[in-house]
Amino acid sequence: MIKTHKIIGACVVLVMGTLSLSAQTPGEEEWGTWYMYFGTNRISEKLSIHSEGQFRYYEVPDNFNQLLLRTGLNYHIDSNAMATAGYAFIKTDVSFNEPEGAFDSREHRIFQQFILRNKVWKLLFEHRYRLEQRFLDFGPSRDTQHRARYRIQVTLPLSDIFFLNFYDELFINLQDSLFGQNRLYGAVGFHINKISSVQLGYLRNQFTNAVFDRWQIGFFYNPDLRGIFKKKEVN
């Protein structure tokens, strides 16, 4: 009788452990890293070009997850409002344990966004509203999806060089289940000079059935190219 109880207990522990492992998304327990570049290149009083590149990894040193390349044309309504239309290409390794040489999904994305900025005390607020049309290629199948995103960002200057940056961004699917994901971010930043800065931060990326922790290293470079374009016009 005692042996029977022991066997049943061992089976229960084994089943519970198996269910726990199957419920956890592969790579969820790993700390990944995103290496990012962002640029806003002013070309006229009202127009600028957005440039962006992101390399995302499931783990800190390696294990490729995603490549994101994005560009767009910004229209500056005034110093606190800007509208953008653009395009992005995304290549994704959809599996943490995907063998080398296996197929990666690809996405062509069109987006439109509107940014509003305001200041309260020393806090700099930025509200970003974005719509995305996503054309997904999974190899054997293809799909078109639409979603909306809202991000509220707060920046607190600590000195002429150092600052803190925080944001929360909600992704809303416009088909199927409403909730897509939520990104909560905090970082310490420093200005290298008037047109470039670096941010070192942490991102909590929450999906319906998984939460990923990511370190982020971001480089921001915003040169004013209006002088170059004026010289070309003169010549």
Mind explaining what this structure looks like?
The chain is mainly beta and 235 residues long. It has one domain: Porin (Beta Barrel). Helices cover 13% and strands 62% of the residues. It contains 2 helices and 11 strands, in the order αβββββββββββα. It has helices spanning 2-23, 226-234, and strands at residues 31-42, 47-57, 64-78, 81-92, 105-120, 123-137, 142-157, 162-173, 179-193, 196-206, 211-221. Strands 1-2-3-4-5-6-7-8-9-10-11 form an 11-stranded mixed beta barrel. The chain is globular. The N and C termini lie far apart (97 Å). Residues 1-23 form the signal peptide. Keywords: Signal. InterPro entries: DUF2490 (IPR019619).
Task: Describe the protein's topology.
Blueprint (H helix, E strand, L loop, with lengths): L1 H22 L7 E12 L4 E11 L6 E15 L2 E12 L12 E16 L2 E15 L4 E16 L4 E12 L5 E15 L2 E11 L4 E11 L4 H9 L1
Parallel strand pairs: 1-11
Antiparallel strand pairs: 1-2, 2-3, 3-4, 4-5, 5-6, 6-7, 7-8, 8-9, 9-10, 10-11
Short description:
With 235 residues, this protein is mainly β. Helix content is 13%, strand content 62%.
- Strand segment tally: 11
Average residue-wise pLDDT: 87
Please state the overall shape, judged from the principal axes of the Cα atoms.
Answer: globular
The run of helices and strands is HEEEEEEEEEEEH
Gyration radius (Cα, Å) is 22 Å
Number of helices: 2
* Widest beta sheet: strand line-up: 1-2-3-4-5-6-7-8-9-10-11
| CATH topology annotation | Porin
**What fraction of residues sit in β-strands?**
over 45%
Alpha-carbon distance between the two ends: 97 Å
Q: What's the structural domain tally?
A: 1
Using the coordinates above, name the CATH class.
Mainly Beta
- CATH architecture field: Beta Barrel
Helix content: 10-25%
Structural class designation: mainly beta
Low-confidence stretches: 1-23
